[in-house]
Design goal:
This protein is an alpha+beta fold. It has two domains: about 140 residues, Immunoglobulin-like, CATH 2.60.40.2550; about 110 residues, Dodecin subunit-like, CATH 3.30.1660. Helix content is about 20%, strand content about 35%. The strands form four sheets. It has a five-stranded mixed sheet, covered by helices on one side. A three-stranded antiparallel sheet has the order 1-3-2. The longest helix has 19 residues. It is globular and about 65 Å long. The protein starts with 19 loop residues before the first strand and ends with a strand. About 35% of the residues are buried. The N terminus is likely disordered.
Length: about 260
């Protein structure tokens, strides 16, 4: 997909809706090294365990299953699973940011190697639940495209709202819409809108790879200010109160 049309990032502050924010420091998580994972994967999974523990310490009862997928995403199926979890798992809170303090390699009494991660995290506890009436219908995305095809689709919002569309590819994550050619506009209830919106613009699929499109429909216009990574995108989504957003994802392959 042409990367030149995915360069617009608004530089306004992220709006965080009324909810409780809790900071937890020095939280630990560990993961054992095994024959089927590399040391880097074990370190990443130790961080995931620390994040899960941070949620528990902050008083969030559920285990965030989507976090388990976050660091281990290797294909479009897992990426789609990640964002489907965000959309369907009813959570009472989520980690919006964290910083790794240390990661140490250690051995237990049986000489098994494990990595222990220590993190400081910021956790949001939601005070609202998803609004089932706030949704958007998305049509026209196929499962398979040929290299050089143009991507086209239609959206029908069932309430007024604003849309952000993220493209997740093998080695890329970022905004597809809005972009430098197409600005954010209010989508009006029950009015179909076709993408690309701008006349003469094409979303051309240049590379043979797996892709996932993530649609984030919000009641207010909330800029995305993060880095172009899956983790930044999920953290941005988590900062939005569940009753103020709907998330949908669609995966496809370019051959």
């Amino acid at each position: 997909m042409r990367k030149e049309i995915i360069v617009f990032i608004c530089c306004l502050p992220v709006i965080v809706f009324a909810q409780e924010t809790i900071k937890v420091n020095g939280v630990k998580g560990k993961y054992f090294l095994s024959n089927d994972i590399s040391p880097k994967q074990a370190k990443d999974l130790a961080i995931i365990e620390a994040k899960t523990e941070a949620l528990r310490v902050a008083g969030v009862g559920e285990t965030v299953s989507s976090s388990k997928v976050l660091i281990t995403t290797e294909g479009n199926q897992k990426v789609e699973q990640l964002f489907n979890n965000i959309a369907t798992v009813e959570l009472s809170g989520a980690i919006t940011s964290y910083k790794v303090d240390t990661i140490i390699e250690q051995k237990n009494e049986f000489n098994q190697t494990y990595y222990e991660a220590v993190i400081n995290a910021e956790v949001i506890k939601y005070k609202t639940k998803p609004d089932p009436s706030f949704n958007i219908q998305i049509e026209g995305i196929d499962k398979v495209y040929n290299k050089g095809n143009d991507l086209k689709f239609e959206c029908i919002p069932h309430m007024d709202g604003y849309l952000k569309i993220f493209q997740i590819a093998n080695n890329y994550a970022g905004l597809l819409y809005p972009n430098e050619y197409e600005k954010t506009n209010l989508l009006v209830k029950e009015q179909q809108i076709k993408f690309p919106i701008k006349k003469g613009l094409a979303y051309t699929l240049d590379d043979a790879e797996s892709n996932t499109l993530v649609f984030v429909f919000t009641k207010k216009n909330i800029p995305f200010t993060g880095n172009q990574t899956i983790e930044s995108i999920t953290e941005w989504i988590y900062k939005i109160s569940p009753d103020e957003r709907q998330v949908q994802s669609f995966s496809f392959v370019v051959k």
